[in-house]
Amino acid sequence: MALRGHVDRLSRRQVIGWARDTAAPDSPVALVVVVDGRAVGRCLAEQPRDDLVAAGEGHGRHGFTFAFPHGTLPALACCTVSVRREGDGAAVPGSPLTLDPITRFDADLREWLSLVLADPVDALERGRRLAFLLEQAQHLRRAAAEDPGLALDPVARPRALVIDTTLPVTARDAGSNAILSHLRSLQRLGYAVTFAPLDMVGDAAALEAEGVRCCLSPWYATVEEVLRRHEGAFAVVYLHRIETAGRYAQLVRDTQRGARLIYSVADLHHLRTARQAAVEGRADLAAYAEHVRLLELCTAQMSDAVITHSTHEAEILAGHIPSERVHIVPWAVAPRPTAVPFAARRGMAFVGGFGHQPNVDAALVLIESVMPALAALRPGGSAAELPCLLAGSGMPERVAALAAARPGVEILGRVPDLAALFDRVRLSVAPLAYGAGVKGKVLDSLAAGIPCVCTPVAAEGLDLPEPLARLVADTPTALAQAILSLHEDEGLNRTCAAAGLAYIAAMNSARRVDAGMRAALDLPNAEPTNAGSETSYRVAAA
Description:
By secondary structure, the chain is of the alpha/beta class. It has helices at 50-54, 107-117, 123-146, 174-188, 205-209, 223-229, 242-255, 269-280, 283-301, 311-318, 357-377, 397-405, 418-422, 440-447, 456-459, 476-488, 490-507, 510-521; strands at residues 3-10, 14-21, 29-35, 38-45, 47-48, 61-67, 79-85, 97-99, 159-164, 192-197, 213-214, 236-240, 260-264, 305-308, 326-328, 348-351, 388-391, 409-413, 427-430, 452-454, 538-539.
């Protein structure tokens, strides 16, 4: 009796094919699977296959799939697999086939290991297996330290290690923009830059495309391992935020002897927390703020240089550590003025990620206090003709409900491109009641040629010139008056827009960042700044 069919696919997991008995073409064929002359199982060729119908093989229900029982196939030896008709032993065409031993870490080996490790075992055997796997993992990671493709590249330039909580993402937040700007400045100043995030995960493709070497899992388990494995490798270690500096400053001193230790505060967390405690009347938060204050100042004292973006915070730091170790270094912001005419834009924008509590409070102030004050100033007592666009991810339900009930307020959620938002409005508003550091939302607005009405907290540390300083107000009514004037007076708006663009060009250029970084690094030919001023902490030269 003729046997038609074919063995289509063979792997260590299964064998797939089809078989049809010409003497009984509509009946399933009983098959035996044989490995190295030993029958390991049986199956029926009865699975439907459209390709067989198309090829004219009857009703097409002649396919088979046989899964090998665990342990059937040897992993480290060659084996022969054949599929035969039960009864007369006739081989299915294409059979037998040979499987080579597993010699590569491919899908077959991973699957085989998974099956072996999934076997139920007692606690003692489980411990043996775990110890073996950990030992092998350590072998691989030690090899990675010596592998030119994974180890630190051999370069003649001095190395700088930058440590932050996570990998930075462009436009995600001000902290990301700041650290990216400072990374690029380190490169321009001649350093080979390595980056290590506390969580050791993330997509490093964008950073590595810029020439930044990233230390991530699985090659490194912790920042501590990066520092210990590459002991003495770095000329500079840059710690961003107190979450990293508080944990690793001493270890940097122990493992990178002679390296210049830079602590970039991002913003003084204790200042923000203390202000929040005062606004919310929380004694527990005030106590925590004092704990953070001591940690921040202790870390600053053990650092060679402390970087801040804010003139106000520089003054605070200079009251506790030698002022020559305090450096104001901005981050680069490119002026990108909107091309949309004033007459084609209306309303104002509020920008802020709502995972940051000061932004939640500011949005509530805007909706509950500033908008009603603005309505009271307008003819007919309505602010509906002056739209307010709320942009930011993670908006809490309370804010969303209040915004939905307020005429003129539009909820946008996360806005990937702020330029498109600024093309719609005449001004932005930042009514922050508490916070710390320089506010990226204010800089982004000014860089788009969009004036920003803000509270003293939002403007703090920027030293805004006239006429921008006149847009700073500390009450809902005063904020509403500034908003209305800026929205209705095209001449005032143009003047403030030009002043904002000039401010960004002067204060947030790459040249200014490099000058500040050069001073913080104590490199030769650092540009002197604040000459003749009463304070001696160094600010990047314009």
